[in-house]
Prior knowledge:
Layout: E1 2-5, H1 9-26, E2 31-35, H2 39-50, E3 60-64, E4 66-68, H3 78-84, E5 93-94, H4 103-120, E6 123-129, E7 152-156, E8 161-165, H5 167-171, E9 175-179, H6 186-194, E10 212-217, H7 221-225
Helix pairs in contact: 1-2
Amino acid sequence: MQYIYSDHPTDQAASALAASITDKLSLGKRVLWLLSGGSGIDIAIKTQALLTPDLDLTNLYVSLTDERFGALNHADENWTQLISAGFDLPGAQLYRPLSGQDIATTTSLFNNWLGEQFSAADYKVGIFGIGTDNHTAGIKPSSEPADIQDYAYSFTGEDFERLTISTLAIKRLNEAVIQASGNDKLAAVKRLLNDNYPVDTQPAQILKSVKLSSLYTDQKIEEAQS
């Protein structure tokens, strides 16, 4: 995992991500781009702004790493927050995880869509954060079935019913762009860098399995390694 310290980590992450997406699309490759909520929305908006207007987005397939289940357009829906922030990619193929159906159907549809994209995409990249509770995407500690064979699953958390990609999906990504800034994230970053906890204890550990993973943070490496 590459550790990148910056006073402006979301800017750095967006710049690198835009370059990666542009490079692959320019070569005619099909790209799967998975977004996240929270600070990941800022990265997505900044990445979008760095994609040149003449770039053909036909082969860009976009969705989320996780979503909070509920009615369409509910206040906490990541997709609604993303669109409200100005996310718009004319020509790209966008998939909104919530479908207005029950959670079992919604999960099945999302899993099927992800399965199709992972099979068809030449390059697969995701934006991730790390929670103070060590979660990433929507994968909370001890939330994932031990025998997971799907690209997505859902569960009832302490705050929301959640829909998320699985550790299986993350392991099959080509690139992970990770952002974790602020003093409240330092403990989780330290655990990720310095230890090898089981994934069901610290789900963010799964990000180490991605061949190209980059952590952008405003925490100096000396602090994270201490």
